[in-house]
Design goal:
Layout (H helix, E strand, L loop, with lengths): L15 H22 L25 E5 L5 E3 L2 E3 L1 H14 L5 E5 L5 H13 L5 E6 L5 E4 L3
Parallel strand pairs: 1-4, 4-5
Antiparallel strand pairs: 1-2, 2-3, 5-6
Length: 146
């Protein structure tokens, strides 16, 4: 007597449900990270141009401080006064020491406003600072600075 049944080896079919799950996770990841990787172009700042400026990608966690023409400071679409900027920079250093900061100032902004923000960064012990410039005929990007 032969008790062994003949087994037919069928190749498994393509499983679509796990593929949809993986694609959904990838799509969610790219959408979530794209939000943090954008430049803050919504704020109406005309950057000065620099021939030697280089266009870099925004670093993860980089704080962008926008200085408008009238000297007001905007971070993450939120207008800050002197005390608010000081608190923000102190929290940044406390939780993320060595975190980069980019300063985007309008080309018509008075020099004293930029120096005021630089002084606040120095008081908070932030030294990783770059300045955003516009490349002539191109997209705005940061120029390396210190």
């Amino acid at each position: 007597m032969n008790f062994c049944r003949r087994k037919t080896t069928e190749l498994p079919g393509f499983q679509i449900a796990p593929m949809i799950d993986v694609m959904f996770i990838l799509l969610s990841f790219f959408i979530a990270t794209q939000i943090y990787a954008r430049w803050e172009k919504e704020i109406d700042i005309r950057l000065p141009t620099a021939d030697t400026g280089k266009s870099f990608d925004r670093l993860p966690g980089q704080v962008i401080i926008n200085i408008l023409q009238d000297g007001s400071v905007v971070v993450n679409k939120q207008s800050l006064n002197e005390a608010g900027l000081k608190r923000l920079l102190a929290r940044l250093v406390k939780h993320f020491p060595g975190e980069p900061v980019m300063i985007r100032a309008d080309k018509q902004t008075a020099y004293e406003h930029v120096i005021r923000v630089l002084d606040r960064c120095r008081q908070a012990d932030i030294w990783n600072i770059s300045f955003a410039t516009a490349i002539p005929g191109g997209e705005p990007g940061p120029a390396p600075g210190k």
